[in-house]
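Researcher: I'd like a candidate sequence for this fold, 442 residues long. If you have to choose between options at a position, lean toward the conservative one.
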């Protein structure tokens, strides 16, 4: 039996193509949703871009018929704009205020009652990214669902970049002796390019080894660099050793790092970038950028020139640079950076339209990027450049993103099959005992 899906505004603003995601069913867009989309068209951010895009998509459907009637969609199903079911009579005793959310619920409720009166009435489902709308819908007897089609991965399938397996001690011995093993010797398991294998003795001894999958030769090989420290920063756990391998390898131009606060993502990436740029001279510039998304209430307008305005947003980067350069006096870091001239700390706002050849690029807090924004960034990367995307998918400050549909998770999942990329999830916090406990308990 086909169903009727009533879409909330946030579904369209999250994914303009969501109207084509409901197979052979009927999609209903309440008129109030169009009003809300229209109010967002002038925004100069991702929400505004999606509002303009969905407006064009719906406008393009007019060529197939009248929008207040059922218009067939290419992928099956129909769509219509609901103009009539705006009566608040059924909900006026429950919700006093006629807010936009309540008007959308009223449309769904009236459609539900209309279908219930039919002999073979269709189920009516309201689809919303807003948890409270779904709660309200449930309270008035409506079926409500979250829109999950924009998720790139389910929670149990999130890629970590490494795989732990138990092997006989003699197999580990061959790996130590030869420096490599064929994947068939290791396990009958689908591995990804540049995936790390944490191999342990099946009998429980302390013998263990770290290998890296080479899909071209179908082998697992020892880490090529075997370097546990970079720019004075020593690896404190096995995942940090994996991260250092990825960060220092020139043949892996795309690196993604995820992990909780305090796992060392930013510090390791900056240390590797400084080593590549200042020590080895392999890149002409170290570019560090992060999206301007406030935690809590926005600071509003800030005084001063561009660099002075950016300083509060970029301060976490400067904190790590102060640690790496071991500065102790105020202004000492600024003098060092001015003297080097090869380190640029920038906001992602200014990256559109740029071309970035032969640079070591670090994008911090990438979990706050949308799929479109992360595509914009990656298409800026020029020849002989290396880019590192990092962040914590569990700490998202963007209203329309979660751990499974953000730009960072999107890149991790889309590139895990590619030889030019590598990923590792850092597990253990190393900032301090307090920070580690806070990350686990809170």
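Model: Candidate sequence:
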């Amino acid at each position: 039996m086909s169903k009727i899906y009533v879409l909330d505004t946030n579904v369209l603003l999250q994914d303009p193509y969501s109207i084509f995601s409901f197979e052979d069913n009927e999609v209903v867009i309440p008129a109030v949703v169009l009003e809300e989309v229209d109010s967002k068209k002038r925004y100069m951010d991702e929400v505004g871009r999606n509002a303009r895009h969905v407006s064009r998509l719906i406008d393009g459907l007019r060529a197939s018929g009248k929008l207040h009637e059922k218009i067939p969609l290419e992928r099956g199903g129909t769509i219509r704009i609901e103009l009539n079911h705006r009566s608040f009579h059924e909900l006026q005793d429950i919700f006093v205020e006629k807010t936009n959310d309540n008007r959308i619920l009223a449309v769904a409720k009236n459609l539900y009652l209309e279908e219930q009166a039919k002999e073979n009435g269709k189920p009516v489902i309201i689809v919303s990214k807003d948890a409270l709308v779904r709660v309200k819908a449930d309270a008035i007897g409506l079926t409500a669902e979250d829109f999950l089609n924009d998720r790139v991965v389910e929670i149990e399938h999130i890629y970590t970049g490494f795989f732990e397996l138990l092997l006989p001690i003699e197999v580990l011995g061959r790996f130590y002796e030869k420096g490599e093993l064929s994947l068939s010797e290791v396990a009958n398991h689908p591995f990804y390019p540049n995936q790390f294998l944490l191999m342990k003795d099946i009998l429980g001894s302390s013998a263990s080894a770290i290998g890296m999958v080479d899909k071209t030769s179908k082998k697992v090989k020892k880490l090529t660099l075997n370097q546990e420290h970079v720019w004075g920063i020593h690896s404190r756990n096995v995942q940090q050793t994996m991260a250092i391998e990825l960060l220092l390898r020139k043949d892996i131009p795309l690196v993604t790092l995820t992990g909780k606060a305090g796992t060392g993502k930013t510090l390791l990436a900056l240390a590797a970038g400084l080593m590549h740029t200042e020590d080895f001279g392999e890149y002409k510039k170290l570019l560090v950028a992060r999206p301007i998304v406030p935690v809590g209430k926005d600071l509003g307008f800030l005084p001063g020139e561009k660099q002075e305005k950016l300083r509060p947003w970029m301060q976490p980067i400067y904190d790590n640079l102060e640690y790496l350069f071991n500065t102790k006096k105020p202004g000492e870091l600024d003098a060092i950076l001015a003297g080097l001239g090869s380190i640029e700390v920038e906001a992602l706002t200014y990256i559109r339209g740029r071309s970035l050849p032969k640079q070591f690029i670090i994008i911090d807090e990438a979990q706050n990027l949308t799929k479109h924004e992360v595509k914009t960034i990656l298409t800026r990367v020029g020849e002989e450049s290396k880019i590192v995307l990092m962040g914590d998918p569990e700490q998202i400050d963007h209203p329309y993103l979660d751990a499974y549909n953000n730009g960072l998770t999107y890149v991790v999942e889309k590139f895990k099959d590619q030889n030019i990329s590598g990923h590792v999830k850092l597990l253990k916090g190393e900032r301090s005992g307090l920070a580690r406990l806070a990350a686990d308990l809170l």
